[in-house]
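The data are quoted verbatim for reference:
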Amino acid sequence: MIDWSRHKPEAGRLLLSEPTLADPNFARTVVLLTAHNEEGSVGFVLNRPLQINMSDLGHGFDSIKLPLYEGGPVELDTLHYVHRLGPGIPGATEIGNEVYWGGDFEIVKKALKSYTSETIRFFLGYSGWAAGQLEDEIAQHAWLVAPALEEDIFLTPPDKLWEKCIKGLGGEEAGLAGYPMDPRWN
């Protein structure tokens, strides 16, 4: 039997949507949780690259070819980032495994040309849940929670990430990777 509650949600963990999740914002997504507390949860979808990159934003980003990702359906006009730049970025929050969220963007912006997608990832918008909402969705089997590996966040190709993470859970959970998006295809 699948253990939907094996891992508890917390910053630095991944949310893996169950295979037939009907919400188009989260179908077959992997969300990196950057905050989870009594006020709610925040995260970013890791496997929804947009067809644009930083240079498409203008405003001094003209030569920056780093890809942009859809972070989630909330406030799509906001820019967010997770990185491996460490505590050298004032205001950055460590979310686990030497992965950080945000920090002083002016410092980041000055060195953007030296960063790669293996160092920093940018998102337009974010995924958010009100207090208790994520726990309710997990209880309804909408999400599996998994440990996050740096390679999952920065190295695994987005189109392979969901399946890799599901298989990485092992046991019966790994079997979900082969489940069709529409059960009628079975």
Summary: The mean pLDDT is 90. The chain is about 20% helix and 35% strand.
